[in-house]
Amino acid sequence: MLLDELRDYNASLLQTGLFKDCCPNGLQVEGRAEVRRIATGVTASQQVLDAAIAWGADAILVHHGYFWRNEDAAITGIKKRRIAQLLRNDVSLLAYHLPLDAHPELGNNARLGKILGLEEQGRFGEQNIACLGELVPPQALAQFAAWIGGRFQRVPQVIGEDAKNIRKVAWCSGGGQGYFGAAIEQGVDAFISGEISEQSFHLARESGVAFIAAGHHATERFGIRALGEHLADQFGLEHRFFDQDNPV
Ligand SMILES: [Zn+2]
To answer: Concatenated DSSP letters for 111-157?
Structure first.
């Protein structure tokens, strides 16, 4: 398919125009006009670029791309090496941040709920990115945390009483710890995100709502992969997901 078609299809599928975000969503670096092989990855790191380009990708789709709001705009150092490699190889980079977190089917949060066996019942928070749902049947916090650790092959960081009964759950993938306060207001028993902050500990202690930090990378592997699989199905493209072992 044509790169322009891929860009436009994704923009309408993910409704990128509706989101206020801290990076550009869509085509960030333009490569060759025709696309047969698409690579997906969580972050457009050097490792993901190297592997995707060696595989022969025409376009690389990621959740974390480039050009973040508060970073220096100059293209030097690490950023120069990454962008130069894309341009030299005529490979495109497309990035989808909040629109991919939020998508009701392919999104990180929709997928995170499915993987953890949570029944999604609603959305909350800015731009309706965070999810509310139920753990059926309810479990003790220690048991639920062990289940999450098994699903992600990574032991989560947990703040809360082991024996606390967990039924109502809120979650927001990646760096979603800022939604913890809003989650507490929803009356949940536990909140799951990728990362945790210093103040999350105090909020958890003083509210009695458990905080489970299951990994930024670990909780954001699903959306971009689901998008790649969807595009491969829809347009007969070859797709491969390139994971990277990231402990954060
Ligand atoms: Zn993220």
So the answer is: HHHHHTTEEEEEEESGGG-EEEEEEEEEEEHHHHHHHHHHHHTSPPE
3-state DSSP call for residue 241? strand
Give the three-state DSSP class for 47: helix
For 148: left if phi > 0, alpha if psi spans -120 to 50, otherwise beta; the answer is alpha
Residue 123 has pLDDT above 90, yes or no: yes
Ligand 1 centre and the CA of 128: distance in Å?
A: 16
* Angstrom distance (rounded) from CA 248 to CA 178: 17
In the reported structure, the alpha carbon of residue 49 is separated from the centroid of ligand 1 by a whole-number distance in angstroms of: 18
Ligand 1 centroid from CA 247, angstroms: 14
Rounded to the nearest angstrom, the gap between the alpha carbon of residue 239 and the centroid of all alpha carbons in its chain is 18
Q: Ligand 1 mean position to 248 CA, how many Å?
A: 11
Please give the distance, rounded to the nearest whole angstrom, from the Cα atom of residue 163 to the centre of ligand 1: 30
Tokens linked to 178 = 């800022």
What amino acid is encoded at 242 in this protein?
Answer: F
23 phi/psi in degrees, rounded to 5: -155, 160
Q: How far is the CA of 121 from the centre of ligand 1 (A)?
A: 23
Cα-to-centroid distance, 63 and ligand 1 (Å): 7
Phi then psi for 7, rounded to 5 degrees? Answer: -60, -45
What span, in angstroms and rounded, lies between the C-alpha atoms of 91 and 33?
A: 9
Q: In the chain, pLDDT over 90 holds for what percent of residues?
A: 98
pLDDT tens across 127-137, in order? 899 999 999 99
173 CA to centre of ligand 1 in angstroms: 7
Which amino acid is present at 101?
Answer: D
| pLDDT reading at 126 higher than 90 | no
